UniProtKB/TrEMBL annotation:
This is Fe-S cluster assembly ATPase SufC. It comes from Enterovirga aerilata. Keywords: ATP-binding, Nucleotide-binding. Belongs to the ABC transporter superfamily. Ycf16 family. The keyword Nucleotide-binding applies. Residues 2-246 form the ABC transporter domain. GO terms for molecular function: ATP binding; ATP hydrolysis activity.
């Protein structure tokens, strides 16, 4: 279970998160929706341990471990995974080299034996086939020359291989066409498990038609201003965020 308590965060003296509280239970898919600038991506970066953000107050606890006391690689080994809105291209680093290094680093940190190249290839090919990732892409530099949909599928491939405990999807639907959205969503849904939880950050209901959430949280001005079931996303799609902006400003 992930618990965030009174999280206050700023960057360059600009306050972004203002006493945010959130709980995501094991096996739960929690969606966060909200207007631009409400702090959604900042929340994902702070959980994962991205530099430059200053935490002024609060705590983030995953299964009893305070993530704020851990380096990003330690958080990853503890089971945190962040799928970026805009995955980076890394020229000169082969996709298979990257996957092997990432997977074996985490296995080593958890006291598990490293995978051999044949073992890794078998796993990658099995998952890649389900995500419709061509084997030719696995021979290229990571994300270099990939379309937006191909980059997102590569993120889900990484998530499937690493088998994280807590998965954050930061606007995974951004830039996806209908077919890519379906493939990526099916990849995510295949990983749903009583032992794995998801935080799905999105602006739009369309992603939640494919990855159906257990709970929906509305974020505005750096805090959660309302929570409800999956029907709340439909309400937001119909009515927008104006009322919640006013509510957060008045708080």
């Amino acid at each position: 279970m992930l618990e965030i308590r009174n999280l206050v965060v700023q960057i360059e003296d600009n306050r972004i998160l203002n006493g945010l509280n959130l709980t995501v239970h094991d096996g739960e898919v929690a969606a966060i929706m909200g207007p631009n600038g409400s702090g959604k991506s900042t929340l994902s970066y702070v959980i994962a341990g991205k530099e430059d953000y200053e935490v002024l107050d609060g705590e983030i606890v995953l299964d009893g471990q305070n993530l704020l006391e851990m380096e990003p690689d330690q958080r990853a080994a503890a089971g945190v995974f962040l799928a970026f809105q805009y995955p980076l291209e890394i020229p000169g680093v082969g996709t298979m080299t990257f996957l092997k290094a990432a997977l074996n680093a985490q296995r080593k940190a958890r006291g598990e034996p490293e995978l051999t190249t044949p073992e890794l290839m078998k796993r990658v090919n099995a998952v890649g086939e389900k995500l419709e990732i061509s084997r030719d892409f696995l021979k290229r530099a990571l994300n270099v020359g990939f379309s937006g949909g191909e980059k997102k599928r590569m993120e889900i491939l990484q998530m499937a291989l690493l088998e994280p405990k807590f998965c954050i999807l930061d606007e995974t639907d951004s830039g996806l066409d209908i077919d890519a959205l379906r493939i990526v969503s099916e990849g995510v849904n295949a990983l749903r498990s009583p032992d794995r939880s998801f935080l799905v950050i999105t602006h739009y209901q369309r992603l939640l038609n494919h990855i159906v959430p257990d709970t929906v949280h509305v974020m505005s001005s750096g805090r959660i201003v309302r929570s409800g079931g999956k029907e709340l996303a439909l309400e937001l799609e119909a009515n927008g965020y104006a009322d919640y902006r006013q509510q957060a400003e008045a708080a």
